[in-house]
Design brief:
single chain; mainly beta; hypothetical protein yedk fold; eight-stranded mixed beta sheet; 4 helices; globular; SRAP; lyase activity
Length: 220
């Protein structure tokens, strides 16, 4: 489970990371994202209609329709921001996106909270706080979740069982983090090849970079 992550990389750094020419960067004049929450936009790398890679903004969370229990009328949809590795191929909600629209979600850290009143936020980094990518899927839907000028698509993050570093903080789930050597397979491989990548990331390549009660954005 992940409901908060950060991407503080500059656009130039992201283009270098993906060997992407400037004309394939659709982010506009963007700055870093020290805290990305469900229902808000984040940068995503996907294959465009022409088959080439592009960086673009999408809203975090597939929209699930909801109705009011009192009036039975439609209300704002729920944002489903995580997709389980053990359900993404069997559930009709996820399957087509997994088979046809996989993406990379660039990040610099992610957060898991432990406890309540107050919660303690634990921020995890990878390979000495280097930029990395989550495994993602996307679909074309313009859902603003009450916000103006929403992006043209939404994305969701794959999760798997936690490794030994994450498990004490979140015992059930952790985001699927992809090794750089697997990025192209995730984007263009077969569903079977992509499914083989949905596994816990090695804990010896991760660390808790900060923890505290008021850390709702990536620490400096």
């Amino acid at each position: 489970m992940c409901n908060l992550y950060a991407n503080t990389s500059t656009q130039d750094l992201m283009r270098q990371l993906f060997s992407l020419p400037a004309e394939r960067d659709r982010l506009g004049n963007a700055s870093g994202w020290p805290a990305i929450f469900p229902k808000y936009p984040g940068p995503v790398l996907r294959l465009a209609e022409d088959g080439e890679r592009e960086l673009t903004l999408m809203g975090w969370g597939f929209a699930m329709p909801q109705t009011s229990r009192k009036t039975c009328k439609p209300i704002q949809p729920k944002a489903i921001n995580n997709a389980r590795d053990d359900k993404v191929r069997s559930s009709g909600f996820w399957r087509k996106s997994f088979e046809e629209r996989r993406c990379l979600i660039p990040a610099t850290s992610f957060c898991e909270a432990k406890g309540r009143g107050p919660a303690v936020y634990h921020w995890f980094g990878v390979d000495g706080r280097k930029p990395f990518c989550f495994a993602g899927i996307w679909r074309p839907e313009k859902i603003g979740y009450g916000k103006e000028d929403p992006p043209e698509a939404t994305y969701s993050m794959l999760t798997s069982t936690p490794n030994r570093l994450v498990k004490p903080i979140h015992p059930d789930r952790m985001p699927v983090i992809l090794d750089e050597s697997d990025w192209e397979t995730w984007l263009q491989g077969t569903p079977d090849e992509a499914a083989a990548l949905m596994r816990p990331f090695p804990e010896d390549r991760m660390e808790i970079i900060a923890k505290g009660e008021n850390l709702r954005s990536e620490p400096d």
